[in-house]
Specification:
- This protein is an alpha/beta fold.
- The chain is 29% helix and 16% strand.
- It contains 28 helices and 34 strands.
- The longest helix is centred in the N-terminal third of the chain and has 28 residues.
- The protein is globular, with a radius of gyration of 28 Å.
- It starts with a strand and ends in a 16-residue tail after the last helix.
- 53% of the residues are buried.
Length: 884
């Protein structure tokens, strides 16, 4: 006799129970089980009734990769998310964050109505108001700035209206809003992400990122990128990298200070000293060029340098030099360089590891050059241009504001085309800029920025920020410091146009409400419409005409309904039904690859730069002696062997390894290695680096239980040999100290880390963002919150929320690309001192202000910049004046 629950059973009874269950299962097998277990996606059935659930396509925004998804809705509630099988690049798959994304909708700490501060900033005292009241109040503040600008006849005052975002996937919506107000003061988060990667690439070949043909390659050099876990386009790239390694027998070699999941998957892993990637890449280029392994024709036809120039430039960067700087053996650098150059096709990939250092743009440019000199550009299995698609903006579209914003475009960083948002609070605190209205959207700098305590002090100070508004639906560390909160909806309840170059098949996708927004909450786009209508009620200011939309959906129709090809298939209505356009085939049940109607694998288009210039365009064009094709004063292509090619997106239409824009400001025009100050640290000091994990997105997912249960603590990775020398055992409390302060956390001993490096994930350590993220899950929900999740109240078994490292990370910038140098902070690591408690953090705003002054010394006008670039052929006394 046994027991199942409170049902008594014996063997005969158990067999009867099994037969009954089989009969019940058989009644459902023809629908639910067949669809759920044998189809590849797009159909799902209620576990209770067996009824088919409603499937609504959308585009994910759990992170910034924008994978195609399908929401399964039952009785008006999202019960499951899965990949959209029609999306050609993500092929029906979502990552862990994407699968858990519906929890954002039902997160108990979600803000369900606009809130007006009634106490001191950060005190947590709020008054619930309506969206009408909230948008009216903000409109009043914005109109006051406009009226003051007009009264003073000073258009620069318009830039006192500032908006900062962490994720802007509005497809031009924020730009339209700010330009309608006459302001150019828009700040993104890219300089804490990968801006120096972008600036290392854009002046060379046009786009700001690469698209590797992973599945068809034979050799991959991976520099500082965790492709299989958290790099850009992780989901589609991971799928195709595995295809390449498993099906195509590609070799992958990784250079990373930490054994990431990708490093562990690699055939070879090397842990170089932080910030020495370019020394390795340049040494490989040295071997390839000096041993004649380069593609001479490609260099001649498609670059703006000669073989002789490259040989002369690369002469100092020998493998022995690289070994001295990086610690990677010269014999391995030579061997891998030869393998890379002689194995066709091949590609590199890099992400934050190389570029998030002082002079990070040089590192990206050096890695990029390896693909160029080996001729692996735009080849099947090679290093390809990104493929994306655009959409029209509704007409009329407002022009930019009349005056540049020095916050958005700091004059000391003229090459930093993706903003330098880290500097904003320092500039305002120093009186270099002024703010009247500060708005933030999908943004949490008090958590996610280096020396994050500076942002905390800045946003609390009403003399610096007279009025602040958060468009957030969660009470983050930054949102709680706002004067007014106008909550957006989650990404599963809103509209956006999308196109991300996440693979070799360009496509458009959409974000649409898969359910009606909960509790009468209002999406950001509608708030923008309402605010502009209240700022300019009669149209006299000239702003209202840019927001004459009948509805948010009307706004979307104006994006999609006139696109050739899509228009004929139904425009916006087609996008609502399918979620993506165009589709290139179907996903094979056998191998998960994209196949056509004949069962053949769909092949991408290659050689985009070699596309032929139409004969009509060539009319009146002139072919110059070097093959450049010019027309109306601009180069429009390149002629090679009598054929007219469109070329690359640069002024010369060639790959510009030599960047005149760099030389203009005293930077080396060719990729170069610069020894970092952190390379000369004192004995006993270490380099602090951070990393991302595959189940968390920066600051926004610690409140999701499915993900927090998997990863909720972030100990400091330290090598066993280094820990032994310091008297530290695994799990011990340690104090990590930088020039701005210290933190107390626990040690995790592992051989998977460079012995001079300590690494901490940024996924954990919240002081806000809901009851779960802060482990206050037993407390009552705030009266403004959604509330009502007993799973969080009763089923949280862990008692560690981690310790966030960002407060002790110093502000430091790449003066070329404007990137925050996340991986240059020098620290000491020691056993915790008496009285230290886990989670203790003590930091200094004053010390961080000194870091701002130090960073400016590396800007193009600074003394440290000049000292580090004496080799550059430029008149140092005639550099352009800032802002000119």
């Amino acid at each position: 006799m046994g027991h199942i629950g409170n049902i008594k059973t014996n063997r005969r009874g158990f067999l009867k129970l099994g037969a009954t269950a089989s009969a019940v299962g058989a009644t459902l097998a023809s629908t639910r089980l067949v669809a759920m277990e044998q189809e590849l996606g797009g159909a799902d059935f209620s576990a209770v009734t067996g009824e088919k659930r409603t499937a609504v396509p959308y585009t994910c925004m759990a992170c910034n990769i924008e994978d195609g998804g399908v929401a399964m809705v039952e009785n008006g509630r999202i019960v499951k998310l899965e990949g959209n099988m029609d999306h050609p690049n993500t092929r029906g798959k979502l990552c862990a964050e994407g699968n858990a994304g519906f929890l954002h909708v039902y997160e108990p700490g979600r803000i369900m109505s606009p809130l007006l501060r009634t106490g001191k900033r950060g005190e947590g005292k709020w008054k619930r108001i309506s969206y009408d009241e909230a948008t009216s109040l903000l409109a009043e503040k914005l109109r006051a700035v406009i009226d003051r600008s007009r009264a003073a006849n000073d258009p620069s005052i318009l830039n006192e209206t500032v908006i900062k975002w962490g994720r802007n996937r509005t497809g031009g919506g924020i730009d339209r809003f700010m330009h309608a107000l006459g302001s150019n003061a828009m700040l993104n988060h890219t300089n804490i992400c990968e801006s120096s990667k972008k600036v290392g690439l854009e002046p060379s070949w046009g786009p700001d990122i690469e698209s590797c043909d992973w599945e068809n390659t034979k050799y991959i050099l991976n520099f500082g990128s965790n492709i299989l876990e958290s790099a850009y386009f992780m989901n589609p790239n991971a799928q195709r990298l595995v295809d390449g390694v498993v099906d195509n027998k590609a070799k992958i070699v990784s250079f990373d200070v930490r054994m990431s999941n990708t490093a562990g998957y690699s055939h070879e892993w090397f842990a170089p000293y932080p910030g020495t990637d370019s020394a390795i890449a340049l040494a490989m280029a040295h071997v390839i060029m000096t041993e004649g392994l380069h593609d001479a024709e490609f260099i001649r036809d498609w670059t703006n340098v000669t073989e002789a120039q490259l040989l002369a430039h690369l002469a100092p960067f020998t493998p022995e030099f690289a070994e001295q700087e990086s610690g990677v053996p010269a014999k391995d650098i030579r061997r891998i360089a030869r393998e890379f150059a002689t194995t066709k096709p091949a590609t590199t990939f890099s992400y934050r590891g190389p570029c998030k250092h002082l002079w990070g743009a040089y590192q990206e440019a050096a890695i990029h050059m390896l693909n160029v000199i080996t001729g692996n550009i735009e080849k099947r299995g090679g290093y390809c241009l990104p493929r994306g698609m655009g959409w029209p903006q509704p007409s009329p579209n407002p022009p930019k504001g009349p005056v540049p914003s020095i916050i958005a475009a700091p004059p000391l960083y003229p090459l930093a085309s993706h903003h330098v948002s880290t500097n904003a609070p320092y500039m305002i605190m120093r009186g270099e800029a002024k703010v009247s209205v500060w708005m933030y959207y999908y943004d949490n700098p008090v958590y996610s920025y280096p020396s994050s305590h500076v942002w905390n002090a800045f946003l609390r100070d009403e003399s610096l920020v007279p009025f602040s508004v958060a468009f957030s639906c969660f009470m983050s560390e930054s949102t709680e410091l706002a004067d007014l909160i106008i909550p957006d909806v989650t990404y599963l309840e809103r509209h956006d146009p999308e196109s991300m170059p996440s693979g070799l098949f360009p496509c458009l996708s959409i974000r649409q409400p898969v359910i009606k927004p909960l509790g009468g909450t209002q999406e950001f786009r509608q708030s923008l419409i309402d605010i502009i209508h209240k700022v300019d009620p009669d149209g006299a200011l000239g702003a209202r005409k840019y927001f004459e939309f009948d509805s948010v959906e009307d706004w979307m129709r104006q994006h999609f309904d006139s696109i050739p090809g899509l228009k004929e298939e139904g425009g916006w209505d087609h996008m609502k039904k399918v979620g993506v356009w165009p589709t290139y085939g179907t996903v094979s049940k056998d191998n998960g690859k994209l196949i056509d109607d004949n069962g053949e694998v769909v092949v991408a288009e290659y050689g985009l730069h070699a596309a032929e210039i139409p004969a009509a365009t060539m009319a009146s064009a002139v072919v110059e002696p070097d093959g450049s094709i010019t027309k109306d004063g601009a180069t429009i292509g390149v002629q090679i062997d009598g054929k007219n090619h469109t070329g690359f997106g640069t002024p010369s239409r060639r790959i510009e390894l030599y960047k005149e824009s760099f030389r203009k400001y005293g930077f080396n025009p060719l990729p170069v290695y610069k020894r970092l100050p952190s390379r000369d640290k004192k004995p006993g000091e270490m380099i602090l680096t951070t990393f991302k994990v595959n189940v968390h997105t920066q600051s926004r997912t610690a409140s999701l239980k499915y993900l927090a249960e998997i990863y909720h603590k972030n100990p400091a990775w330290i090598s066993p040999a280094r820990a032994k020398a310091l008297g530290i055992a695994d799990g011990d409390l340690v104090r990590i100290t930088s020039a701005v302060g210290y933190m107390v956390t626990r040690a995790h001993l592992t051989e998977g880390i460079h012995p001079e490096v300590v690494a901490i994930s940024t996924a954990c350590g919240h002081s806000a963002y809901g009851r779960l993220a802060t482990l206050k899950h037993k407390e009552a929900d705030a009266e403004w919150a959604l509330g009502g999740d007993p799973d969080i109240t009763n089923n949280v078994w862990w008692d560690d929320k981690g310790v966030h490292p960002n407060p002790i990370i110093r502000l430091s910038l790449d003066p070329i690309g404007g990137s925050q140098a996340w991986y240059d902070t020098v620290v000491t690591v020691a056993p915790a001192q008496p009285g230290d408690k886990y989670g203790d953090t003590k930091v200094s705003v004053e010390a961080s202000m000194k870091d701002y002054d130090e960073a400016l010394r590396y800007a193009y006008t600074g003394d440290l910049h000049r000292a580090a670039h004496q080799e550059v052929d430029v008149d140092w006394n005639a550099l352009p004046r800032p802002g000119h």
